[in-house]
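In response to a reviewer's request, we include the raw inputs and outputs for one of the modeled complexes. The two entities were modeled together in a single run.
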Amino acid sequence: MTETVTLEVTRYRPEQEAEPTTQTYEVPFRKDWVVLDALNYVKDRLDGTLSYRWSCRMGVCGSCGMMVNGEPKLTCAAFLTDSLPGPIRVEPLQFFPIIRDLVVDLTDFLKKLKRVKPWLVREKEKPLAEGEYRQTPEELDLYQQFSMCINCMLCYAACPVYGLEPSFIGPAAIALAQRYNLDSRDQAAPERMEILAEHGGIWECTFVGECTKVCPKNVDPAGAIQQYKLASATDWFKSLLLPRGAR
Amino acid sequence: MSGPVRYTLHHPKWYRRPVSVWWWLESWRYAKFVLRELTSLAVAWFALLALWKVRAIATGPEAYAAFLTRLQSPFWVGVNAVALVFVLYHTVTWLNLAPKAMVVRVGGERVPDRVIQGMNYLLWAAVSAAALWVLERG
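The model returned the following structure tokens for the whole complex.
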């Protein structure tokens, strides 16, 4: 007898149905399989019409994020053994519009990411002849944790603030803003602060803290946001108390 | 499948799942968060109580005595006991989260979370002891 496990997978075929439905598949249980392996088994052997995103199978590309039993997870890192005896519920990342089956629309996230300028900004580039911008290991250490983000959006799917207030710029974008703010080669921290201190920025965050718990790369977006709030509040107090020259 | 498929180019027919008003009951983690937010009502309650006390003291000895007698009724003792539990929960979770916002570096190394939490608890204990000393003396 081969052991099997049941998958309850969200299906949404906009040309056929107005709302998502659930389809059940029986897949073989293997202890070295992750949810993504089970989905690939469905796609290859049972139902070729199932749509979902994946690429690297090793927690680097950030494409295979889905809700597994109600929790945002990279399906390439969610072992079947952790969800026994099943059934295992596989749904698209919550709070995002569903395009088809398990595929969600990323447009909103990508727009927000671009707004925080996640790249090195210099007031004036120095000439090439002067060489590269050098950095010490200590300077690297300041931001390295935040640079591990793979844009998998699990933090957005874990954030009820994003669900309730879609204008919230969101955990990953703020963590990445902080990643560049803390980089000794970057000079755009004041510009980013302007964007993030506005409506939809850091002050929307009520510190639920779930973004940090679901992050597969230990980026700690919740930490980044609270540190940002502290910096923003400190700036405000300084502008209130200090004369213009000393700020 | 009935009829031809109609798509508008570059405009997928999204489905947006509505977020229920009861979203915070759907998982224990969210419920815990909302519970923590609600404990701030207990904090506000103690602040109000302190204001009432000040008003009673300002009004005179009889008003203050009436205020104290009222607080000794089982109902108010119960309310304040529950509020105290909430305030303690609020304080402990608050102090535990402090290292998330406070990044302190000494000699290039980040001070471990435990140390930041420890310092916060020590400060809390010191301030409480000072307040108690002032109250007991009076």
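As requested, we also summarize the result in words. Chain A has a mean pLDDT of 93. Chain A has two domains: 4-104, 107-246.
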